Amino acid sequence: MPKELRKRGKKKLKQQDQDHSGETRGPTSFSETQAEPGQTTQADPDAPFGIVEPNLKSYIYTIEAQLREWNNGEATYEYSDTMRPLEERTAFITSVLAEISGKEPQLATDPRCSAVLERLCYSMDDLARRTFMERLADSWVQLSKHRFASHVCQTALELACHTVSREHSGKFAMFAFSEQKSMTDIILDAAKELIDPLCELMMDQFASHVIRAMLKVLDPSSCVGGDAKSSHNSYSRSKKSEAFRQRQGSMMSVFHRREETSSPYQVPNSFGEMAGRYGETLRQSLGNNEVRAMVINPVASPILQMLLAIESKRGESEVPGSLMDRVLVGMVTRLLNQDRTIIREDYIEALLKDATSSHLMEVLVEISPPQIFHQIWATYFVGRLGQYITHPIVNFVVAKAVSRIDNEDHLRGLLAEAKGGWARSISLGRIGTIRALVERSTSLGVLEEKIIETIISSFGITKEDDQQFIIPCILHLKTLEAYHASQASQNQPENEPSGLEQPPQRKEGRPNDSKFSTQGALLLQSMLRVHAPFNASVLESLRMQSADVIIEIAHDPTGSRVLDVVLEAPRVPYPARRNFIMSLLGKYHILIDDRLGSRVADRCWDASDARLKRKIAESLIPHEYFLAQSIYGRHFAKKIRITLFQRNKSLWVSQQSLGPPRGTSQQLFTDESTAQDHREDQQEVGLGSPKKRKRMDEIDEIFSTVKRQPKNGS
Predict the structure, then answer these.
(1) Do residues 31 and 51 make contact, with C-beta atoms less than 8 angstroms apart?
(2) 199/107 Cα distance (integer angstroms)
(3) What is the gyration radius of the CA atoms in the chain, in angstroms?
(4) For 530-573, what is each residue's pLDDT tens digit?
(5) How far does CA 80 lie from the centroid of its chain?
(6) Per-domain residue ranges for the chain?
(7) How far apart are alpha carbons 108 and 49 in whole angstroms?
(8) pLDDT of residue 33
């Protein structure tokens, strides 16, 4: 810009006057309100323990980068020549813990440092975890209410349960000082600290998750309902917290030491007594109406579910004034007083239809004693099952209640009352009650045939000629009429197969969505698991499907699970499983050329006897080039040792298992052709002959043909 066009802005005379005046200015920025690093100020509630020093912050950020590299397998840290990588990482973690010693509460309340502190907890040993938990003592209430520190508390409790289990089993870590507490005592002290303001913490959006984590540590069986099979982390954390942790990447130990989360850990008896004190504190602190208000509160309701489970486990539910009695509006008290005049409460019916409280009702029907459950069933479910099974919320509670039915009369009454609404349930995609009824009848061994026939007729399949549509209609979760209409609307021309076999073309990606219904696939799996011969209609429909349709199902992420049940369920007769495997002969190379189809092919191979394995191998020899071009085909060809089969069939047959295939028993070989095939296999390899034959592998076969040369000078 030319110099003559440049203009200086106007001076801010007002600001200059204020600067020259003797008046003092108030704080104009957030930085001026902050206290000095390491000091506590009441003006900033986000940092109740003080601001983290800038030098320590930069050091924590460096730690975060190094831990991420190790967690992701990118070990770019330069190790010294005198120390091994494991020793170097141990020294690194030790130095980090020494640097942050005494500053744990400050780091836990910092937005970014709290995430690094969570990641660091996974690399701590038992001694370091005890030291870290001791530093949080007398601050649990304040930390649990904090937005970021509450997540650190959850992670510390989730990992502390494994240390408690090892201490309970007698595997103590070395104590740094003789007066250091064990993790069991530290957890009990923290639980005592949180029990006094329990009602306040249950209603806090951050502290409630810490209470859930604490109850899970005190009583591992307190997780019930839909999240009972999930991990500790997913049960105690919110959806936003789970999404944040996924963005942070994998959090695991830098020493590649995974905690045993699958097996239940052991806790001392003092933990169960402390968990019972939580329920007792809630009963003494709150009245009946306050407890019922917590049922519909989305923050407090999950904790109330865990306390109900703990109360039922300790046998305190059948007591007047218990939490279960208060939620059920005095039903327990009336039953104890032998008062049979129990009427429907509008409050309970509202709980069944509420999106939040319905989860608690699921827990209630699952853990309630038999006498109370039968009264709940007779009062609130019988007479309205036709409406409830199609309700978008109540149908989940009904499905959970069906799993508690223990006699044939109740099942028969449920079937007679609710079967009229099954067609509407299918059209709406709400078949949880139908699937629960199939599974319950299978476990009790009653009404299986009648229930299967009712399901098939509800899909509009009443004629024998339409039996082939059982599989596609249930997989798509559509009635026969709706299925035909959807197929006619597609109007997609069929691909005509060419005369020459084309090499496989790799798929760049596979969509995660499935063309089949997940609920329909689950229902079909339950129908296949019923006792024989009541599952014969479903197996006959599967036999009537073409190989192309079966391959299409096998290549689908949802439909392939149905075929897994056919190949592995013990109640599926072996002749039906054999016919299914035989129907794919000549098409196995197409089945294998897929990520999911190759898994189904592996199960077909494992479920086959020696005769079937030989037929599968013979059908794949003409497609050897096709398999070589496929990444999945090469693995399958290596698994079945197709090269050895081409070179020496007798040796290949002798190496196959001649007993019943996996998942079957000897009495399942009822088909005469199957028995004949086994006799032919035994005669072919010479089983039963007095002369024993030495088994040889490929290398022995090669060296046996080479004549031994005499040594020079001999």
Answers:
(1) no
(2) 27
(3) 34
(4) 999 999 999 999 999 999 999 999 999 999 999 999 999 999 99
(5) 42
(6) 54-173+180-256+264-271
(7) 9
(8) 38
